[in-house]
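Model: Ready when you are.
Researcher: Fold this.
Model:
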Amino acid sequence: MDTTQQRVHDAGLGLRRSFLNQIVAAPPPEVSFYEIAPENWITIGGKFGKQFRALTERFDFICHGLSLSLGSTDPLDERFVQDIKRFMHEHQVKLYSEHLSYCSKDGHLYDLMPIPFTEEAVAHVAARIRRVQDILEQKIAIENVSYYAAPGQEMAEIDFFNAVVDAADCEVLIDINNIYVNSVNHGYDAEAFLKAIPAKRIAYAHIAGHYVEADDFLVDTHGAEIIDPVWKLLGKAYELYGVFPTLLERDFNIPAMDELMREVNTIKTIQNAWQQQHARQSA
């Protein structure tokens, strides 16, 4: 992996308003960067706005979009992309990322829906990503998503993902938990998927917990502790590609800050282990 293009470093945390006061009052030293959904912050003023500004002046931030709906057949919301561009400039945000999915059809669906794995969809989505990058005047990172059905599937998930990012010439947000969840739900080898990711395009990673509905059905909730097989898959990713920035996502059932920092520190421990091993091998 080419780390010279990394905009952020080490371990990050998804910023949530429920613990904003704690972060402002005592920023945890374990966290090197934060990620926010711009839809939740772009119009914020008052106390929250001042607190957010205080953080963006001190720390690196990434925007992770929820509503751009890259796979939709609705017209691309270019006005929203322009708003994102201004917001990123105002707060010196390092990167914008989005999901390889869609969430609108003549109006918002309020969920991330799977794009059909077809050549037609590759061309459609890649063109929309390129347009977003043209407006923002920078590359964006696209996330591999969890999905529970594959309508109209003509190719494997990894082949579809790689075809889109290649045609769009964009970067990759690699979600480790999504790879694990999909591997269980759809019966593929998680490490084989990981090995096929275009390493030079990796900008950063997500890691999160999930809900076990059944032995063969997992739900990507971001509402539980990360399990050991997912941590091991992160370690495998570092083994394959070197250490890249990795962010903890927790969206509900949010625990105390000490518990969040325990998982952030686990990211850092795995990162340090692979860096030390690489240093020994290089000596």
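Researcher: Now this one.
Model:
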Amino acid sequence: MSANEQILVEKSQNGDTRAFEQLIKMHEQKIYNLLLNMTGNKAVSEDFLQETFLNAWQKIKSFRGNSEFSTWLYRIAVNAVLMKRRKRKTVRTVSMDAPIITEKGEIKRDFADDWSKSPTATSENTELKNKLNKAIELLPEKYKTVLVLRDVENMSNEEVQKILKISLPSVKSRLHRARLFLRGKLSGYFRGH
């Protein structure tokens, strides 16, 4: 954690709302992108973003600095989504087609890079993306969350471990099982092509 961020955290812990607003601005986009990747819905992600920062404000005094402040925020965001999903199983997971929202605009998500610009290849890539989306939606929640954090958000195993508060072997095991599941679901597609 940078010295500036540490000062902002300490001020926030003493009730300084302006300092907390600065912390929000520092992390807002990353947290929103994570939530969008987990829900696939902009409006739902915005609701979770507000809930995340409200929860963070309410719990700011409990932050001890044992992890990065961003890791603590990611944990709050992931827990908000997971708790809501446990209550209602209606929140979508990962939309591979949803663009990534950045300060400079939208970036088109393309997990299955175009191997060619031909219409046939483009059609096949769209079909593959759809199959991948469907396969990810079938993953059990604990595997889906690790897959999104690790493979979509490009976090390290250690970061995922801290966010989910599980052991490093559990992160690796869940990621491995998620990838095997996806491979199994997609193997028929590749055999046919």
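Researcher: Key takeaway?
Model: The longest helix spans residues 168-191.
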